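From the methods appendix. Each design record in this collection lists the tokenized structure first, followed by the designed amino acid sequence. Records were kept in a plain field format so they could be parsed without special tools. The example shown here is representative of the layout used throughout.

RECORD:
FOLD TOKENS (100 positions):
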């Protein structure tokens, strides 16, 4: 599983993430399913040759496989937890994501 934690999501960060995934899997052809976020379909988005982006229809979160990842992450890493600040949440994400 490939992931990146970012303070904001924009075309630049999405391009960086796609480059990270492409570099981690140079011999693979990757089909990535995305929702309709503007950073996923911007004209300036840099799409590596080995990645194909497939957009979901509008208003269909049940089709987004990422939603299941968040459910699993929430259940395993964040049950009955209260955090003092956003940095603590980010630290928990950084330690929990590799365990998935």
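DESIGN:
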């Amino acid at each position: 599983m490939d992931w990146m934690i970012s303070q904001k999501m924009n075309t630049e960060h999405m391009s960086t993430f796609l480059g990270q995934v492409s570099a981690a899997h140079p011999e693979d052809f990757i089909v990535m399913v995305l929702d309709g976020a503007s950073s996923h379909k911007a004209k300036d988005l840099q799409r590596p040759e080995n990645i194909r982006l497939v957009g979901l229809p509008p208003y269909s979160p049940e089709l987004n496989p990422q939603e299941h990842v968040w459910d699993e992450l929430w259940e395993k890493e964040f049950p009955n937890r209260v955090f003092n600040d956003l940095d603590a949440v980010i630290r928990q994400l950084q330690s929990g994501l590799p365990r998935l």
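APPENDIX NOTE: The helical segments are 11-24, 65-77, 86-96.
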